[in-house]
Write a structure and sequence with these properties.
Strand 1 and strand 2 form a beta hairpin. It contains 11 helices and 23 strands. It has an 8-stranded mixed beta sheet with strand order 12-13-15-14-16-17-18-19. A 5-stranded mixed beta sheet has the order 5-6-2-1-11. A 4-stranded antiparallel beta sheet has the order 4-3-9-10. The radius of gyration is 23 Å and the shape is globular. With 436 residues, the chain is of the alpha/beta class.
């Protein structure tokens, strides 16, 4: 793609995400106008969350807005964290502006203006979180994200955040906690509305950088919110979604170091207790359709729970598996070979090296006669939208969970499509029909 075409294509892509026409109703009266306040709207992307829009109130009714009239500056800080100048402050490009309500919904006439901002995977100024490396460990954390919006014709400034909206994250209850034998775990959860029959449960286990006590991080750092979106929910006829969070990292051993399957971790027992407790408290969950998946650290823990409780789970979907094949015994292979599994990995993953983890494990399962094991093995992790380089843009090879969250995986280790009853299926379509 020629560089000169990229800004135009990005604008067209963003326009496609807006309603085709504004509502016909006009605002009948002015809203409560607060000097200097603004609302940010966050969207999830394959590489994480970004501030996509900012909504500013004005004290008169308008029917149009001009993007060139506004400038947006950003300041990103975190106490005790040193940031490079390029990631701490700078300007955001305003793609276009439109008249909206206070939530950013486009309307014909109103007293709010929404500014749509350019978002790109290589621009840290877009993100309200940061991967922070401290005391030998890295984790994604919310940071202080402040904006200064200026209306250049009048020098009017908005510089105080009044609200933030993240519709995908807003679907989840983030207050879940569970303690088992002194081990406390937090979790986020989603419940489908209006389910009249038993519905399945999708469990997602985050990676090593999303531990802590704030489940929003476990959900938004790599777009696990997608499992509650209408598209994926439609495959299941509605499904509960459970996203547990470890205080540290799933692969922590008793010594505090990483286990890769050679020793026991300290969380799997408490985690399984949490799952059983959640299922018991939600009698509409179909216990024959409980699915577990995760990435990297969470991929390790997903496999660990399947190894320990193969009779409990209807299927597993695992990305960037961190469990070392050499520590899985032949007896364990026999124990799990009848559990439907779908692995996703990239050949250029240097963090969880596929030849040490998923490739030999998959081959052993197939040799053992596993009837329903699939493996989507990608050359690289690329831009699925096509707006940032498409197949020529490479994310880090470790990020193969992008293909799971986007429901993109649809082929097997032999590069042939995965099919059910002669119909090609994606990983979520496949998962939805699995039963214990």
């Amino acid at each position: 793609m020629k560089k000169s075409l990229l800004p135009l294509l990005l604008i067209l892509f963003t326009l496609q995400q807006l309603p085709m026409k504004a509502t016909v109703a006009k605002v009948s009266q002015e809203s409560s106008y607060t000097e200097g306040n603004y609302t940010i709207i966050i969207e999830g992307y394959d590489w994480g969350p970004a501030v996509k829009k900012v909504v500013v109130p004005i004290n008169n009714l308008v029917a149009e807005a001009n993007a060139s009239d506004f400038s947006v500056a950003v300041n990103r800080t975190k106490e005790g964290v040193e940031m490079q100048p390029a990631e701490s402050q700078g300007g955001r490009e305003v793609l276009f502006a439109y008249v909206s309500d206070e939530k950013g919904n486009r309307i014909a006439e109103g007293n709010h203006i929404s500014l749509v901002l350019l978002v790109h995977p290589n621009n840290p100024l877009d993100s309200p979180i940061k991967y922070i490396f401290k005391n030998g460990r890295g984790s994604n954390q919310w940071i202080d994200y402040s904006m200064n919006i200026t209306h250049t014709p009048t020098s009017k400034i908005w510089d105080t955040e009044a609200d933030r909206i993240y519709s995908d994250l807003d679907r989840f209850n983030l207050e879940g906690t569970y303690t088992s034998d002194g081990t406390a775990l937090s979790y986020g959860s989603f419940e489908p509305e209006g389910a009249s029959t038993k519905t399945p449960l999708i469990i997602w286990l985050h990676g090593g950088g999303e531990g802590g006590t704030d489940p929003s991080i476990a959900l938004i750092a790599n777009k696990a919110t997608n499992y509650a979106t209408p598209e994926i929910q439609s495959y299941f006829g509605g499904a509960y979604v459970l996203v547990p969070q470890t205080p540290t990292f799933w692969m922590q051993s008793e010594s505090g170091d990483y286990t890769r399957g050679d020793t026991d971790d300290i969380y799997n027992k408490a985690l399984f207790d949490l799952i059983e407790s959640y299922v018991a408290k939600h009698p509409k969950i179909d216990t024959d359709r409980i699915y577990i998946g995760g990435c990297s650290n969470g991929g390790y823990m997903s496999l660990k729970l399947i190894l320990n409780h193969p009779e409990y789970f209807a299927a597993g979907y695992i990305s960037a598996l961190a469990y070392q094949n050499e520590y899985i015994t032949n007896e364990e292979i026999e124990r799990i070979k009848n559990v439907p599994l779908w692995f996703v990995h990239s050949k250029d993953d240097t963090t969880t090296v596929p030849d040490e983890t998923v490739v030999p494990l998959y081959n052993r399962l197939i040799s053992a006669g596993a009837p329903s094991v699939h493996f989507s093995f990608y050359d690289h992790v690329v831009d699925l939208t096509g707006f940032y380089g498409g197949k020529d843009y490479y994310f880090p090879g470790h990020w193969s969970w992008i293909y799971s969250h986007a429901n993109n995986a649809n082929f097997d280790f032999n590069q042939k499509p995965v099919q059910i009853n002669g119909k090609r299926v994606t990983i979520m379509e496949w998962l939805a029909v699995q039963k214990r």
